[in-house]
Amino acid sequence: MGAVFFYHLTRTPLEATLPALLGKARQAGWRVAVRGVDPARMGWLDEKLWLGPEDGFLAHGVAGGEHDAAQPILLTCDAQAANAPSCVMSVDGATVSADEVQALERVCILFDGNDQAALQQARVQWKTLTDAGCSAQYWSEDSGRWEKKAEK
Fold first, then answer.
1. Rounded to whole angstroms, what are the CA distances from 125 to 34, 78, 97?
2. Are strands 87-90 and 32-35 parallel, antiparallel or unpaired?
């Protein structure tokens, strides 16, 4: 049974936080699906990952390619990622079900704490998932470093 980790972004933007979390997931040996809601935004994240430091390059692809199933990290808007991930990282409000949380090693929900709609959606997701019995942690960077603020 997996767990869902909520990452409340207030200081560091998604394009800086996501590579760090992806690196940790890959170190754990997990295949990852980064799930979004807008294909153009997935293209933007793809570009940001390509522009990262060479020594920290994260092999990845955008869904719809010939080798989706082989990608260690797949950027997608589909609920069923072709790369059979152990971890799903939800961005921009992409939905995640309690069944997914329980079936995967980890689910990460990254949300912009400066966006009231994103903040409200994350609160709804927290309640929905924890009410369904999912183990959850809430992480915040308000103090300047990541701290676990809640666990259920």
1. 17, 18, 9
2. parallel
Domains in the chain with CATH codes: 3-151 (3.40.50.10110)
**Encoded amino acid at 136, one letter:** A
**What are the pLDDT digits (tens) for 41-73?**
999 999 999 987 777 789 999 999 899 999 999
- Residue-wise DSSP of the chain: --EEEEEEESSS-HHHHHHHHHHHHHHTT--EEEE-S-HHHHHHHHHHHHTS-GGG----EETTSTTGGG-SEEEES-SS-TT--SEEEE-TT----HHHHHHSSEEEEEEETT-HHHHHHHHHHHHHHHHTT-EEEEEE-TTSS-EEEEE-
Enter the pTM of the model: 0.94
User: Tell me: the pLDDT tens digits for 72-111?
Assistant: 999 999 999 999 999 999 999 999 999 999 999 999 999 9
Instruction: With beta carbons less than 8 A apart as the criterion, state whether 18 and 151 touch.
Output: no
